[in-house]
Amino acid sequence: MFTATSTTKVISTAIVALAFALGSSGAAMAAPAQHDTYSESWAGDEHLAAENNSCGPWAATLHETRAGSYRIVEAPGGRSEGEFHVNGVIRGHLSLTPDDPARPTYSGQFREKVNFVITGVSDDGEDQARVGQFRLRAPLAGSDGSTLVLTMTGRLTTNAHGEVVTARFSLLCA
Known about the structure:
Elements: H1 5-23, E1 34-48, E2 60-74, E3 84-98, E4 106-121, E5 127-142, E6 147-158, E7 164-173
Antiparallel strand pairs: 1-2, 2-3, 3-4, 4-5, 5-6, 6-7
């Protein structure tokens, strides 16, 4: 299966969004919700060993380019002091190039949807999400006419004490 790099990017983005929102906070309880936007643009490669490739038992390089934005809403009167919401859509392109040149190369577009409710920052600088989820679906066309569909989903929920209640990550490639 793919490594958790994409999940790390989502959580890292939420951390940056948290810092951005906290830096622009200061709304009084009677003030209207504050809206900010955080833009993301990224490109990179990840080499996958055969045992880590959910799309087949062969080594490959995954190349991803992504761009989009997250809307950050800090509304007064949230469930927790300083709570804010992060909602975003990221569009991108994936290509999966096998190490063996006899195998087809796959590529396609994707759209990732991200929603988080952030309640604060821990002592070590990590964001504390009450609930968060993301969804990504990427139909990939092979250079030989074959197709793969890559689907990633993730969900995180915590209780009032900040303890993780649900942490799920799913990656399917068919």
